[in-house]
Amino acid sequence: MFGKTDVFKGWIRIIIGLIVLVVAVTLMNTFNSSLLPYAVFLPTLLAIFAVFVAVLSLIVQTAEGSVLETRFDRVLKLRTSFTENQELILKALIKIRAKHPKFALKDVYDKNKALFTKEKLMEILYWK
Fold it and tell me: How far apart are alpha carbons 5 and 86 in whole angstroms?
């Protein structure tokens, strides 16, 4: 349920494509320096790098939602008869667990039972 590959989904192809593009432009310019003068080559390389950083930023921003949905879908496959309230609470617990994977939910519950009220869990799910 908590696999590390949840984050990348289809993004790995885009990352590999950008890396191949950077390597190709660099190799073309290395073997044929008249193909792209350095006045064009460096800004092109910087632009490709900027696109790469933007894609990574997008991945980071969408990673949490993707991980939560994937884990939630896996849990729903284990048992099909959850009520709507149970699904909301379960999703909040999965979100807590995803943010702090080193801590067991039982340990957190033992230390702070007030965090596990229905109201607090809904706050965590929708506002944090």
Answer: 26
Chain-centre distance for alpha carbon 121: 22
Contact 6, 71 (CB under 8 A): yes
**CA–CA distances in Å: residue 43 to residues 21, 25, 30, 86:** 14, 12, 16, 53
Please, what is the angle between helix 11-31 and helix 38-78, to 10°? 160
44 vs 41: CA distance, rounded Å: 5
Q: What percent of the chain has pLDDT over 70?
A: 80
DSSP H or E run through 36: none
SS3 101: coil
pTM reported for the whole predicted model = 0.53
Helices (H), the chain: 11-31, 38-78, 84-99, 105-111, 118-127
Q: For residues 88 and 122, is the Cβ–Cβ distance under 8 A?
A: yes
| pLDDT higher than threshold 50 for residue 29 | yes
